[in-house]
Amino acid sequence: MVLYTLSEAIWGLFVKRNKIKPQVQSPKQLHPHLPFTLSTPLRPAPHFLGRPAAMTSLQAAPRLSLRLAPCEPRGRLLPPWRLVLFPSSCRLYTLISRQLPICNAQSYADDLLVASAQSTTTARSRLIAAEREEAKAVLSLFLRQKGLRSAVAARISNKSDGFIEHLISKLQIAYRSRYAEGRELSTPEIRDALLPYLEALSKEHGDSLVEVVENFPDPFAAERESLSYSMILTPTSSNKQKAVARVSTPTSGGALPELVLYLLDLGMDHEEIKNVVRKFPAFAYYNVDRKIKPLVELLLELGVQRSSVPGIIRKRPQLCGISLTDNLKPMMAYMENIGVNKAQWSKVICRFPAFLTYSRAKVEITVSYLTELGVSKESIGKILTRCPHLMSYSVNDNLRPTAEYFRSIGADAASLIQKCPQAFGLNVESKLKPITQFFLDREFSIEEIGIMVNRFGIIHTLSLQENLLPKYEYFLTLGYPRNELVKFPQYFGYSLELRIKPRYARMTGCGVRLILNQMLSISDTRFEEILQKKSGGF
Prior knowledge:
Number of strands: 3
Largest sheet: 3 strands, antiparallel
Number of helices: 27
Low-confidence stretches: 1-7, 22-116, 219-237
Strand order of the largest sheet: 1-2-3
Structural class: mainly alpha
Mean pLDDT: 76
């Protein structure tokens, strides 16, 4: 009884002291399993009457006995059964435990708030971790779409933590309201936000995208030497101007940068180096030992003459930024597997240095179309060895429409692309159709034009005004029938001044008449032998 009376007294004192109006009247009402009842319900203090009632929240717990507890040090965690009262000021959280240790009430409130905050933080951390993995998956997918092998794309995504955090910040900006609500983003939402951004970065940085991703936020920090303070802080200085200044300004020791000295020794002059940097500013930040020298050594191993290396760098400085182990060598192995002549790499690279900068996905698309066109695997390798520029042609914008057009005039597209692959880089409307129309206007049939194309594939690559027109007008003076051109369209491939006119004058001077093919295609020695034989018979 003493325990009960003292407990009720403490309860009443606490309620009166804090001037609160409980919505429950007694500990018995707070928990029906308490082993006692109160004879007199608790009453609020008179001066509290008329004020808004405080909001209450009750959490029940298993049956426990009521007893007094000594005042424990601040911070002791109280039992789970408690009455939580929220005054109208919303600034005081008062908690009463079944044991009613008043000194611990504020400590318990603090613990509750910390636990709530920790719970929210833990949940948010889980969401961020999930979104981080989603961002890695999107980045890996994008890199694979750009031609990187799956293993390489995954490795880059997993080690580029700085860039992944940057992508998470992009998500937070794009879905600000969703984050405020604490709602989890779906995979399609994450992809919709990140893929356009990655595509924009790809267009901006080109072949240097991987380097940007791996070294974010400063792609060239590891390789950059200190620039002048004014250069760094000048907001109007473009990246190109900074890059050019880097290869133009001596270092603190008064010497030119190591990159410039190496390239000068390689055979490039200083102005050429600046032009390369203007074309591709990232080149100014390439490390000599890790980027430039390994490529030069590879080119020399492939048989490229040292004197030809500067020209390759001038044409395609991006080659220096591509990983040899992850990209260049695997791509070369793949090309050799589809028929590119291994012994001809030096010629291929000198003809078209960009050949090795194309992604494997791009190469596979082109190879697949050539196969669809009817070109054998062996012939594909020969085509790419002889004309590596073919890889720069888009299947949908160049190869397919050109093949369809040649077929429409009766030409064999599969055979033509092996004889004259460069013709497939021409625009149908602005280049091919005008050539066809030129012959149609001169009463050649579409069938005859198709025959001429099959026999002389490069006819559509010739200049209309500087080649076809003057040679055709001269042909009309020769007295040959028009079908001679159908039989021998190669006529348009010979020089008018150095071959056609001198041969015709020599032939007519001997009183001999040869067919067009015989007059132009044979060697000078054979031509003279025939003239002597023919003239001796007259």
